[in-house]
Amino acid sequence: MKPVAAAIVSLAAGIALGLCAVAAAAVTVASPNGDIVVTISDEAGIPSYSVSFRDEQVIKSSRLGMRFKNAPGLDRGLAIASSAAASKDETWEQPWGERRFVRDHHNELFVEFAAADNAPRRLGVRFRAFNDGVGFRYEVPRAKNFKTDEVTNEMTEFVVDESARVWWIPARYWNRYEYLYRESSASDELTSHTPMTLKTPSGAHLSIHEASLVDYSAMALRQIRPGRFKAELAPWSDGALVKFDAPLVSPWRTIQISPDAKGLLNSSLILNLNEPNKIGDVSWFEPGKYVGVWWEMHIRDSSWGMKPLHGATNENVRRYIDFAAKYGFNGVLVEGWNLGWDDDWFGNGKVFDFTKSYPDFDLSALAAYAREKGVRLIGHHETGGAATHYERQMDDAFKLYEQNGVHVVKTGYVADGGGIQRIDEKGIERFEWHDGQFMARHHLEVVKAAARHKIAINPHEPIKDTGLRRTYPNWVAREGARGQEYNAWGPPPNPPEHEPTIAFTRMLAGPMDFTPGIFDLEPNKRAPVREDMTRSDPKIRVETTLAKQLALYVVLYSPIQMAADLPENYERRRDAFQFIVDVPTDWEESVGLAGEIGDYVVMARKRRGGDDWYVGAVSDEKSRDVAVDLAFLDEGKTYVAEIYRDGAKADWKTNPYDLVIEKKKARRGEALRVRLAAGGGAAIRLTPATEQAP
Amino acid sequence: MKPVAAAIVSLAAGIALGLCAVAAAAVTVASPNGDIVVTISDEAGIPSYSVSFRDEQVIKSSRLGMRFKNAPGLDRGLAIASSAAASKDETWEQPWGERRFVRDHHNELFVEFAAADNAPRRLGVRFRAFNDGVGFRYEVPRAKNFKTDEVTNEMTEFVVDESARVWWIPARYWNRYEYLYRESSASDELTSHTPMTLKTPSGAHLSIHEASLVDYSAMALRQIRPGRFKAELAPWSDGALVKFDAPLVSPWRTIQISPDAKGLLNSSLILNLNEPNKIGDVSWFEPGKYVGVWWEMHIRDSSWGMKPLHGATNENVRRYIDFAAKYGFNGVLVEGWNLGWDDDWFGNGKVFDFTKSYPDFDLSALAAYAREKGVRLIGHHETGGAATHYERQMDDAFKLYEQNGVHVVKTGYVADGGGIQRIDEKGIERFEWHDGQFMARHHLEVVKAAARHKIAINPHEPIKDTGLRRTYPNWVAREGARGQEYNAWGPPPNPPEHEPTIAFTRMLAGPMDFTPGIFDLEPNKRAPVREDMTRSDPKIRVETTLAKQLALYVVLYSPIQMAADLPENYERRRDAFQFIVDVPTDWEESVGLAGEIGDYVVMARKRRGGDDWYVGAVSDEKSRDVAVDLAFLDEGKTYVAEIYRDGAKADWKTNPYDLVIEKKKARRGEALRVRLAAGGGAAIRLTPATEQAP
User: Fold this and answer.
1) Is residue B616 part of a domain?
2) What is the pLDDT of residues B307-363, one digit of tens each?
3) Nearest CA to A47 among A17, A29, A70, A24?
């Protein structure tokens, strides 16, 4: 173990003056490689910190602190009273993930700020400096007059260069996280969800986020002056930000730092700041691919409810099960199977019953039919945002699924911003944010209840991901961004730059159930299946090439990946579909190879427990050439590269189906050059040549 | 009295169904002239309203309602239970103002929404329809389980056409109201203070604001979807929005409506929705003009504190008193007279003492010297935002000023957003917004305390104006926008479009102490008076012509108007200064003649109790010709027009001092044509010709 890099700079002066806060103290902690240095100060009695990266001050002096409802604030009149250093270098294994082994290598400094008036209050802040960034969290001990209380203001700031570029989506707005990312200047007014990604004038890339959001409100970032972003916590319906019984331990506030965009793709900092697995063996959860009764509702071939044209019928579900079995997929999602969909459920999810099927859907018969073929049904619980209503039913609902061999349940919280229904202790209906403390608690309650039934959870309209899959590895994926569904009904559909943007923003938080693999890129141009099943505006379409749809399986990580299109559309393009059949969803290693935010991204991933590698590259609205450096391959081994790339005339708008599939020999030390069309992409499978021999 | 225009459309249906909210009810109230119709509905159990203006639905169906901390929300599951109509047409007199007589002519409808479950809760909403707009407020009666409570969400919406244009400044941002106005689309995300001004695609102009903000938090408007603006109340430091003992009566939510921009200038709706005078005779307050020890600090000729160079010295103040007396001004403001300015007061106003002068400032001697010359000192209380600290001293402070014949006190609340210091019941320091309920209460406490000492109040960094000058006519002016001071230090200074923008936004709320009349337009280009008194960036200057500075005295209404520049700068331009000497600050009538938001504005005002009229016209960065229609003059009378206008080569940037002063005969039926330069303006005095005879 290396010696701890933390150093106490001028703390002695503070102590000598009896903490009267006349002389400011400062302490520092550096990353193991020394590139990152955090300086913590109490100048003018204000707890604050700054972060330098290779001599650039990427976070300028920024406030720390908290204010409370019943107790005096811990945000001014404070002095550093003590600090304690520690260090760690260990490697841990994920049960599933984007990489099997994760190295947690950091130096730690725990700093206690005390009131200058010697009141018995203490603000503890624990800092961890990694080679890929910084995390810190508040730890406020229980004390006389500090027991049950509320956080009324978290003062945490992140001050960056005023001219930094910022990629963000709005927080405290109407609809969860489902927005197109915007690019702004740090001088522009904005309130952003996290992860928020920044690029400083010198080219350093930062992602500000949080880790281990367990019993706290989600942090958004509000620009309060040019370059100055302040924590803005999602309030409870009664205005409280966080309700707690002391001691208060906040989530980790995180700043991932890289000299380039691709470095952000290779950070495991968020996972490292979460607690180890608390639910034990999850081998019952198998990463894999799935199809389902889903896209057909979005394009209005069928409906969730009985009216006008029910999709979740026994006959239709068997068709999907047969298809999944034929191609080795392990899951079939069925939405619209339970009672409630024909009622006015939007924003009123209390109409849903999670144990009662529609009459044309026989759960146990279909589940048995699937199991015989080596497939599992994937369950579905749309709550319409009625969280308390769901909590009351979920144990029975999970039990029913467990009895039918279901191991994954997709949940849903379709309700506008501020619209999660909670019934309080008095029976009064309240409306909470999707990312408030109530929902942080709710989602974990659901995940824990599901774990007791050996069920993994994939929430849509969720709270954001803060790496809790490490602690609760049955929390396997989630939505929390604009997914493929927007290409069915928009408006607008996801533009070509969407995927190379979310790769560097939303995806830094964790797995996303994006549902890639749409092959019929203009479904709204097809004739309706029935007169009363009108399609969306035909201008709304998938704004990618076919090759890009394949590349998304590698670029956007999730342990469960849907092949979202209709079976017949895959049968029609068996050639392209082969990549989806081949691509795994669980990885030994993942490497971000190249990219720029919103322009393009190239990822390589190695099958967990295998020798084959997969490369995905996607572009924005511009065509471009990328050179895939094959440095990740084994030395001296020959591989066969199966390349699924855009044809010479491919273009998402004019010629999206122009796909070339070709094989080439490939070796480490070489670079594979591929051209990405406008809105295009490339998907590559690399297998050791011997395995390919006939 | 005209018959009431309110009509009950389908209420009977609702009653017949026992309020089970199956059939929606709707009631309407129309303006006296019938142009404006408000429709109130309970469709789907949601209380809502819409507003039409000459057959255009200017406010589409918009939610009403409230949510509370301890009681169930009154925002859904409601039905219209009763409605009661009334009507009024009366004219009342202002003690001072932009017009002497104000006509209050409206139809009223009080609507009660009741819970469909027959719970004893009621949401009352009182609507008033005027010819110039609509006001409505909530009235929630006291009931069992509804006594002491908190508002946790006000659901009020204002839904406009998605492509409407919006002029706005950000709310919940760092610095009060001191921003440049931005022009956006109603489809853009924004959170705006009120008044927020809109222009619909058809050309209708709306101003959304509030009236009579007495014991409630200020309402900002948050765009929550394209075209949909929702009330966002400034929270207390503990997260509560409004604390109340039932009954709860909200301020009036107001929508002023006009077919054109200038119509907004002629509305008295805000005043009409305030209560009549509650403090009795205020004849001790005399509208007038003042000079003061102020601009010299902003341009760093002197300082507020003793260091580096005290401005409020006996000698200097006497110089201003002499100047005021010479030209018939009735006030001399002195800032920096009291102890505290040399301490670190910014955000820490507890250092100020409001009864102790600096040793080189003799309050009683100077006040006596002024009174002898027919001038009054104008007092100054900068609180640095320490509101509780000020409340504890203000009675003594007002008494001291009263003893010295001071009748106007300028207060100040310089503290960043969220930075008003409040000491709570437990002695804990809290930080409140400038526009939260605490400050609504605080300002009224100050105004009432001042009234007991015959003192008028002019707060800077105030809460916004909601017309309370009608009820408390010693609340004579305030800041609450970017004033002239920004032209001393910016950055940036106010651009040329600033004044023709605030005329249609901020000024719709009420009087502003803008402090016009700067004659040396590039003060930062002058040599510093001492080496350690460095000026601001010389690029920061007044971006107007000299003529425009004169026009502001007519365009921007306040009963107290500063001649903000140094006496020597006025002496140097006695020709131009004559307009400031002549222009009154109290009016018989005011008429908005022409204008477009952010482009230009032309106002005419008639001296209260006199026959002379004054016209002010200001332009943005473009030069333009305006034709002043003299229809406001008396029929058959000849007037002499003294015109102070931009010269042919005037331009704020290249030639700002090019001023032409000329006299012309003028009569009703004619139009005076004047050219406004880029960043220019015109000021015109019209006096009956006989009075001008020698």
Assistant:
1) no
2) 999 999 999 999 999 999 999 999 999 999 999 999 988 878 999 999 999 999 999
3) A24
Q: Residue A152 and residue B241: Cβ atoms within 8 Å?
A: no
Site from B144, B150, B238 to mutate, A interface, most A CB atoms within 10 angstroms: B238
Same domain, A427 and A560: yes
Interface of B with A (CB under 8 A): 67, 69, 71-73, 150, 152-153, 170, 173-174, 189, 224-225, 235-241, 417-418, 428-429, 431
What burial letters (b/e) apply to A464-493, b meaning 16+ CB within 10 Å? bbbbbbbbbbbbbbbbbbbbbbbbbebeeb
Which tokens sit at A619? Answer: 């572009």
Instruction: State the smallest CA–CA distance between residue B98 and chain A in angstroms.
Output: 36
Could you say which of B152, B235, B236 has the minimum Cβ distance to residue A237?
A: B152
Q: What is the mean pLDDT of chain B?
A: 94
Q: Inter-chain contact B153–A241, Cβ cutoff 8 Å?
A: no
B238 with A417: Cβ contact below 8 A: no
- Residue A399 included in any domain: yes
**Stretch A291-300: mean pLDDT, rounded?**
98
Interface-testing mutation among B230, B428, B438, with chain A (most A C-beta atoms within 10 A)? B428
Is residue B626, in this structure, part of any structural domain at all? no
- State the Cα angle at B536 between B534 and B542, rounded to 5°: 135
**Residues B342 and B218 grouped into a single domain:** no
ipTM value, please give it: 0.89
Interface list for chain A against chain B, based on CB atoms closer than 8 Å:
67, 69, 71-73, 150, 152-153, 170, 173-174, 189, 224-225, 235-241, 417-418, 428-429, 431
Confidence (pTM): 0.92
Q: Chain B residues with CB inside 8 Å of A417's CB?
A: 224
Domain range for B416 is 288-585
Radius of gyration of chain B, Cα coordinates, nearest whole angstrom: 26
Q: Which residues of A touch B189 (CB under 8 A)?
A: 170, 173
Residue of A nearest to B344 (CA): A44
What is the largest distance, in Å, between two alpha-carbon atoms of chain B? 84
Residues A129 and A243 in one domain: yes
| B590 assigned to some structural domain | no
The more confident residue out of B111 and B14 is B111
Residue of chain A whose Cα is closest to the Cα of B174: A224
Could you list the active site residues of B?
A: 485
In this prediction, residue B23 carries a pLDDT of 56
| Contact criterion met (CB below 8 Å) for A508 and A264 | yes
- pLDDT higher than threshold 70 for residue A415: yes
- Domain C-terminal end among A569, A585, A601: A585
- Give the position of tokens 């203006």: B53
A247 and A315 both lie in a single domain = no
Question: In the sheet where A376-382 sits, what is the strand order?
Answer: A456-460, A408-412, A376-382, A331-334, A288-293, A560-562
The secondary element (H helix, E strand) that includes residue A89 is strand A78-93
Q: Which of B241, B272, B303 is the last residue of a domain?
A: B272
Residues B502 and B389 reside in one and the same domain: yes
Is A173–B152 a contact, with Cβ atoms under 8 angstroms apart? no
Does the structure show a pLDDT above 60 at A14? no
Q: What are phi and psi of A263, to 5 degrees?
A: -60, -35
Taking only the tens place, the pLDDT of each residue in A37-53 is: 999 999 999 999 999 99
Asked if residue A369 and residue A431 are part of one domain, the reply reads: yes
CATH number of the domain bearing residue B258:
2.70.98.10
- Based on the domain organization, do B533 and B454 belong to the same domain? yes
From the list A486, A460, A596, A504, the residue with the least C-alpha distance to A543 is A486
Q: Can you give the pLDDT at residue B641?
A: 98
**Closest to B224 (Cβ–Cβ): which among A67, A174, A429?**
A174
What three-state secondary structure class fits A295? helix
A180 and A296 housed in the same domain? no
State the total domains in chain A: 2
Phi, psi of A534 (to 5 degrees): -65, 140
